[in-house]
Amino acid sequence: MIKRSIMKKKGTSLLMVVLTTLTVALGGCSSDKAGDSANSSQTPATNADTASSSQADADSVTQAEGDTTVTDDLSKLIVGIPQDIDGLDPHNSTGAGTREVFYNIFEGLVKADSNGNLNPAVASEYTISDDAKVYSFTLRDGIKFHDGSAVTVEDIKYSIERNMGVDGGEPLIRAYSKIDSVNIVDDTHVDIVLKEADSDFLTQLTVAIIPAANEHPDTTPIGTGPYKYVSNSPQENFVVTRFDDYWGEKAYIKDVVFKIESNMDAIVMDLEGGSIDMMARVTSTQAAQLSDKFEVYEGTMNLVQALYLNNDVKPFDDVKVRQALCYAVNPQEIMDFVSDGAGTEVGSAMFPAFTKYYMPELNDTYNTDIDKAKELLTEAGYPEGFEFTITVPSNYGQHVDTAQVIAEELKAIGVTANIQEVEWNSWVSDVYTDRKYEATVVGIDASTLSASALLSRYVSDAGKNFVNFKSEAFDTAYANAQATQDDDEKTAFYKECETILSKEAASVYIQDLPEFVVLNKKFTGYKFFPLYVQDIAAIKPAN
């Protein structure tokens, strides 16, 4: 990994004085990647209130299963999550925070493990034709949905075709436009036939298999995973219980409550008070404040954090302005402030877990150069700088803190960045969906184990292209990557895509954030994944 030395940065000493002041102001103001900003006028619930509410949630699960026995502390796990899920229908939910919860409830034909392998799930086995156009699957014998019904090949066909948009709508998954047909061979076999060869298409088949007979997947989620849905209280919790007819290894913990923790300032208090047992993506400062009754697991978030710029609005429609910001922002300085130096710098839209695609050399495309940044601004017609707004989802503290550092750094080139914190749902609707924003700081993760999951969103007409990046060169390179079946050629084309994103400064790429996961020592077994996943079924009582 090539890291920029802080010694070769300009303007560092002055900024560190400013950051010392910021530390006092931001010390207790930690959120994560997106969500509801905690207003100073709001009073957080006390530990007693929260613990009582969580106990009631867990008890309701037990009663829902017909067991009125009082459960001990190890029969339930309360997991803090920073944002509410964005819907109960797995095919129409887009939030990474939703996907990490749904991993425990829904499964595809194949399913990713903690080592990045794709293993059979709803399917017991599969074959891929020599021309990489026909993917054949065998339905797992005896597999059931959470409502007790048997999974059938008709359910597989329905689920895949629903994501294809066979009802006349756009495909829910861009790659599914490649599917020519889904053919039921017999009661246990299904063929997915592609219009063109694609040796990577297996990575797209983790999409949830759901019952064709379920007319209301948006209110009654039914999957095949190790946990089944019990209830959802918006902005409060999402409750699941173990599915005892699960085809694979059963979950260790019976009842799980995913408790919404939108006020990140209360995380340490809630962990110590016992109202939550686990929290992912806490800050290094929060982790350091916890007592020794907690285990802190350290990994990486496997995402690309950036100052994402709306390429359709002025002044960011000018590549020279975007490049100027890249020269002015110092990723190492951000990492030093936000996470005590932890994190991995990225210079384009790829994180290090995608080993063969990640290009550390792109980290040096824009070594901090204030004079060069000012020169580019002058050439673009902004010799005195300009003012813009960074819209940040407020329940993800690392992103809020990153925006604060960026705002200070940009002062050196005469640019004023105003920070607007918004709650998560507003961010999704205004920034991601409607693209009514100038800039934002978030992390973009990969939904599948394919480089295309990160790069496809930059294709000019992609529905997920919320930064409105448009480049004929990129579109051509990406199309070439999709067309070839030679792995070396595909990798080279994907790297060409990354290089274009870097040189054209699609956004200001910063880092793959470190991830600190806190788990009460009553439990053990936490695993990191190369995707945005929380595998709750692997967690078990420590004793």
How large, in whole angstroms, is the Cα Rg? 24 Å
Structural class: alpha+beta
Q: What topology, given as strand order, has the largest sheet? A: 8-9-10-1-11-19-12
Poorly predicted runs: 1-72
What composes the largest sheet?
Answer: 7 strands, mixed
Q: What's the N-to-C terminus distance?
A: 39 Å
Q: Percent helix among the residues?
A: 25-40%
Give the beta-strand count: 21
Question: In percent, how much strand structure appears in the residues?
Answer: 15-25%
Identify the overall geometry.
Answer: globular
Residue-averaged pLDDT, rounded? 85
**Helical segment tally?**
14
Can you walk through the features of this model?
The chain is α+β, with helices and mostly antiparallel strands and 543 residues long. It has 14 helices and 21 strands. The strands form 5 sheets. Strands 8-9-10-1-11-19-12 form a 7-stranded mixed beta sheet. Strands 14-18-13-17-15-16 form a 6-stranded mixed beta sheet. Strands 4-5-7-6 form a 4-stranded antiparallel beta sheet, covered by helices on one side. The two termini are 39 Å apart.
Descriptive key words:
543 residues; alpha+beta; six-stranded mixed β-sheet; globular; disordered N terminus
